[in-house]
Amino acid sequence: MPELPEVERAARALARVALGKTIDSVRAIHPALRRKKIAIKPTLMDQSVIAGLGNIYAAEALWEAEMDPRKPAAKASRVKLERLVDAIRLVLSPKKRLPGRYTDKRGVERFAVYDREGKECRRCAGTIKRIVQAGRSTYFCPSCQRR
After folding, report:
1. Using one digit for the tens of pLDDT, what is the confidence trace for 20-66?
2. Do 69 and 84 contact (CB within 8 A), yes or no?
3. Phi, psi (5° rounding) for residue 101?
4. pTM surpassing 0.85?
5. Quick one: residue 104, left, alpha or beta (phi over 0 = left, psi -120 to 50 = alpha)?
6. Is pLDDT larger for residue 5 or for residue 114?
7. Strand partners, 133
8. Residue 76 and residue 97: Cα distance in Å, rounded?
9. Residues 145 and 130: beta-carbon distance below 8 Å
10. Are 47 and 15 in contact (CB under 8 A)?
């Protein structure tokens, strides 16, 4: 069993929990984001920034917030970050997180962008694009998720 100081250090390395009360405002994540020069999507998946937000829900939250996943995290405006915090809470809410795997027909239908490459955007009728960021697929609409 690890020593207590080691466990405490590990716990401090994790950031705000995505659906917890600690991420109810931009103040919770702004300090960590403004230090990141990399794109916002891989930054959101970094567990030292926001714990519990994975690939699918990061893409969906960025779509909800109308943020380009390629934008450097440090360059995101405060207004965009406020929208992003609201979007994270929305995509992780029970209303949006229906039971089942995303590979089920019912699961795939619930996503606005994830795994929908080449399909029409539900918001603007643009075409969903897939890129690779940090070794993971990122889906977004270049028409309504602009830098």
Report:
1. 544 555 676 777 788 889 999 999 998 888 878 899 999 999 999 99
2. no
3. -85, 150
4. no
5. beta
6. 114
7. 136
8. 26
9. no
10. yes
